[in-house]
Backbone:
């Protein structure tokens, strides 16, 4: 065990401090993980067990909620909807965002600063501001309840995040590589796609993960802009909440199916989480 | 030409999906625009704005949103700082890594699911929270049915979800303190508070400002978790500003009024984000 307080405290004090240290760390872990644990265990309870008072900690687990949710209640289809929307909007954001990020990092032009600020400002805008008019427009165009509508509206938050992270990434690539290629007669687009894009892969991957997580987690637009065919998983989970006899096990099974992939992705990107969430205000 | 080829698609797309609807919102906000009667949408000037600005319910929702922020944010900052300091202590690297990873879980959990989980865990009869309170001798509390308790419950989940964010931001700040300075200070004084205040605090300031501004903006945006947990109720006790606009627009069908509310919210947000951008990016941009 590492002596936490160094030479000053003596063995006894430092042992005591280490014990406190361990205790608090365990408490934090418990606090963070417990709701997740409760969600998963509730998803394995039958309705009778879930509605027991007091709540049961030890019980016979069942997968019935999962089979019911997936095969009878179209949660499977809604997860596929979520996947389609999240993947497509992420791809689109990368296709549109990476060239823009490259231009912002490498090319010189008037109004560059303002343009960059404008992209970033989108991070702050409340989705409800766009949800209302977007709903009316989409209804006029008879595009309610389609994937494409969600794919497009999610670009309002995905595109800024891709542009922000990738601009930063392109800036970190030495300019000398560009210059060398230019001497060889390569065009700007060739330099971008053949030289800079592969080198920016880590940043692109991180921005893709963020874009995926934000889209996968989104509820309000999905609630407003979809009805049945394109309903995403969070919106379906919410619809179980209606009526008096709430199917707790099924709701938690659906929730677990929604949350687990996100947590896996977030853990993969955990080193970049702070930078991504603050848009780089904190390194 | 090259510049347009690179930037054009992104700019045009964001204009089309971001600015065009906004223009439309501005248009509807000057009209009587009810979803139940779209045949007649007369121009009514600033009437909707006057209604919103003099509407008590609107300002009450704003006030609730601010109260919510003032309840949750200080807790998040204090707890976050304590967690960060704990994780910054030397030793126990395995446990600390585990702790850092578990901090990711609340942040990544789908906001809507947090609300659903809130309904399950805070249920008066079947909820595990009341069971735990029972262990320490506190009787069952009606969390979701009582206005004050419901407000506390949504604030609790906000604290659960975003304290880890504060902790990780502060931890990132702490790691920028040069090790030599910290070591020297530790030889000088035994008080951890002295070290925090005089040595570490300056390095935590950028993170703190980021937290203040981002959490404010995110609270103005907050919808999913509260909607799935309480729908703004009981009564309107947990109806934060985003929920109110959603109710007026989609459940009350008055798009004109809701648009005016949204535009006012947007103006507040723009002022805020200008603050944010001025603060952080004026130097970062060359």
Residues:
């Amino acid at each position: 065990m590492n002596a936490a307080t160094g030479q000053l405290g003596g063995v006894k004090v430092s042992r005591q401090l280490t014990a406190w240290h361990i205790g608090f760390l365990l408490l934090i872990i418990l606090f963070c993980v417990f709701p997740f644990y409760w969600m998963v265990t509730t998803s394995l309870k039958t309705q009778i067990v879930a509605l027991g008072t007091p709540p049961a900690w030890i019980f016979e687990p069942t997968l019935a909620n999962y089979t019911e949710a997936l095969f009878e209640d179209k949660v499977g289809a809604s997860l596929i909807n979520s996947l389609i929307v999240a993947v497509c909007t992420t791809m689109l954001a990368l296709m549109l965002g990476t060239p823009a990020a490259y231009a912002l990092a490498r090319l010189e032009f008037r109004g560059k600063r303002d343009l960059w600020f404008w992209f970033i400002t989108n991070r702050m805008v409340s989705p409800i501001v766009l949800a209302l008019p977007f709903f009316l427009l989409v209804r006029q165009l008879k595009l309610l309840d389609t994937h494409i509508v969600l794919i497009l509206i999610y670009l309002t938050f995905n595109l800024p995040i891709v542009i922000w992270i990738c601009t930063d990434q392109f800036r970190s690539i030495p300019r000398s590589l560009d210059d060398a290629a230019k001497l060889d007669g390569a065009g700007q687009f060739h330099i971008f796609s053949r030289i800079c894009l592969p080198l920016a892969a880590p940043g692109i991957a991180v921005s893709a993960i963020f874009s995926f997580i934000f889209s996968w987690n989104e509820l309000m637009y999905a609630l407003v802009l979809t009805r049945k065919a394109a309903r995403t998983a969070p919106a379906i989970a919410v619809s179980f909440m209606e009526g008096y006899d709430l199917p707790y096990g099924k709701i938690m099974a659906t929730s677990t199916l929604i949350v687990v992939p996100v947590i896996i992705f977030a853990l993969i990107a955990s080193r970049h989480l702070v930078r991504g969430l603050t848009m780089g205000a904190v390194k | 030409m090259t510049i347009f080829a690179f930037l054009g698609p992104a700019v045009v797309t964001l204009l089309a999906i971001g600015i065009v609807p906004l223009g439309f919102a501005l248009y509807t906000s000057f009209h009587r625009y009810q979803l139940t009667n779209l045949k007649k949408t007369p121009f009514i000037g600033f009437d909707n704005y006057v209604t919103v600005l003099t509407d008590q319910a609107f300002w009450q929702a704003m006030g609730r949103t601010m109260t919510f922020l003032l309840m949750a944010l200080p807790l998040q900052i204090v707890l976050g700082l304590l967690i960060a300091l704990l994780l910054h202590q030397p030793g126990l690297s395995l446990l600390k890594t585990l702790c850092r990873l578990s901090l990711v879980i609340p942040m990544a959990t789908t906001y809507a699911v947090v609300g659903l989980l809130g309904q399950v865990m805070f249920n008066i009869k079947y909820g595990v929270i009341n069971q735990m309170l029972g262990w320490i001798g506190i009787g069952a509390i009606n969390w979701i049915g009582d206005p004050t308790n419901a407000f506390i419950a949504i604030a609790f989940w906000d604290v659960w979800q975003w304290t880890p964010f504060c902790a990780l931001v502060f931890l990132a700040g702490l790691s920028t303190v040069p090790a030599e300075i910290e070591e020297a200070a530790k030889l000088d004084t035994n008080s951890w508070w002295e070290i925090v205040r005089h040595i570490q605090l300056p390095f935590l300031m950028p993170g703190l400002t980021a937290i203040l501004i981002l959490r404010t903006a995110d609270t103005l945006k907050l919808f999913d978790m509260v909607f799935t947990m309480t729908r703004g109720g009981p009564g309107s006790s947990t109806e934060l500003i985003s929920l109110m606009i959603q109710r007026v627009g989609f459940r009350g069908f008055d798009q004109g009024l809701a648009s005016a509310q949204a535009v006012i919210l947007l103006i507040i947000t723009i002022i805020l984000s200008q603050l944010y951008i001025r603060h952080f990016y004026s130097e970062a941009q060359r």
